[in-house]
Design brief:
The protein has 96 residues and is mainly α. Helices cover 60% and strands 4% of the residues. A two-stranded antiparallel ribbon has the order 1-2. It is elongated and about 60 Å long. The relative contact order is 0.20. It binds zinc ion (ZN). Zinc ion is lined by residues 12, 14-15, 17.
Length: 96
């Protein structure tokens, strides 16, 4: 469904379903921040109270972890939003 990292194709290359109707907008970024924030906030508290690491080590590990998890989740959540819009026949999906 995606070409490149986040660009949605105009049509599905397998079945030809038009995908240009999607209106994902800021939804995938919002969901990514929501999920990464709710996962990492308790984990950073647990890591700090359990291991008492050097602050630079903690900041480095959690910066890399947050960025990596965000980059992993963002295209998947975009696919989820476009798929949900397709399934609910939103924004012109299913009008043909
Ligand atoms: Zn298809």
């Amino acid at each position: 469904m995606l070409k490149g990292y986040l660009k949605v194709r105009d049509d599905c290359p397998v079945c030809g379903e038009p995908l240009h109707h999607h209106r994902a907008d800021d939804g995938p970024a919002y969901l990514t921040i929501l999920i990464v924030g709710h996962l990492m906030a308790p984990v950073i508290l647990w890591a700090f109270t359990t291991f008492r690491p050097d602050p630079m080590v903690l900041a480095t590990v959690f910066t890399i972890g947050c960025v990596a998890l965000s980059l992993y989740l963002l295209p998947r959540l975009k696919g989820l939003m476009v798929g949900l819009q397709w399934a609910k026949r939103m924004h012109g999906f299913g009008s043909a």
